[in-house]
Amino acid sequence: MLRAGPDGTPPTDLPGLPKGPACLPAYREALRDAFASLSTYEGVTGKLTYRGGSPDPIKSVVMKQFKGKKAVFVTNIDPY
Q: Is 20 helix (H, G, I), strand (E, B) or coil?
């Protein structure tokens, strides 16, 4: 899996990936492959589920309604 350093720069010691300007296509492909291998990811905003190699997550939705100036919880719609 690709990981960025503390300053957000990509690691420089990835075996098999070229360095310099030529590395961008290889990094894109590696990142695409890493996301394609995900099935479930517990993120900051909740659980994300990926199906069939799709890059689009399946995720719950929170419905809120404004009453006056306050957002009030209505329901949670869970697709799975």
A: helix
